[in-house]
Amino acid sequence: MTGQRDRWAELTGGQAGEEYAQRFARLAESGHDMHGEAAFCAALLNPAARILDAGCGTGRIAVRLAELGHHCTGVDIDSSMLAVARRDAPAQEWLLGDLARLEDLGLKPGFDLALAAGNVIPLLAPGTESAVVRQLAAVLRPGGLLVTGFGLDAAHLPLPEPPVTLTEFDHWCAQAGLTLRQRYATWSGDPYDQGCGYAVSVHSRPPREPSPATASPGHAPE
């Protein structure tokens, strides 16, 4: 743990799990599509991929991805959120922990995709953002993807002003060895234009290149 409260805890007091779940249940009952993030990620993956849902909340996205045949681990620092996730999907792996200290959770590296949806990045504890990006990059396999979605203005955030810019975020990703592959304005894949209030980004970790010593004789490394 960092010892510093994240912005989400400041907003909710860490007791928002049931209320959060009920909010999305009402949206689903009114006909809203609750699976946009999961569908977006699934389109990027091969079958039975290994996914880390970072800041998983009540598990809405991870549960759907598991239903689609993927292997999902959810991590969140809010125990009230995880209580709902564990109740609704007890067979899945739910871990209580700080995203800035993922190494403390004993996660095996090699995830195909790490997801930070639902404004996870701007709601982190101030000053920990680059460490979180670095930790998420570290658990990815070579060629693995970091997928994020977060608001860039007050209309798309539960905050009076955005604490993170895309320029800052891309810089943290570059420092962690990640490259921007795609950026959209919505989870439906609408094109991103400068000034959009929301950004869905796909960054990738470079694939591992074989060393000359391991390359087959007479064949150049791919």
From TrEMBL:
GO molecular function, one term: 3-demethylubiquinol 3-O-methyltransferase activity
EC number(s) reported in the record: 2.1.1.222, 2.1.1.64
Protein name per its UniProtKB record: Class I SAM-dependent methyltransferase
Listed SUPFAM superfamilies: S-adenosyl-L-methionine-dependent methyltransferases (SSF53335)
Domain called Methyltransferase: residue spans: 51-144
Organism: Streptomyces atroolivaceus
Pfam families reported for this sequence: Methyltransf_25
Alphabetized UniProt keyword annotations: Methyltransferase, S-adenosyl-L-methionine, Transferase
Biological process per Gene Ontology, one example term: methylation
Ranges for region Disordered: 201-222
Origin organism lineage: Bacteria, Bacillati, Actinomycetota, Actinomycetes, Kitasatosporales
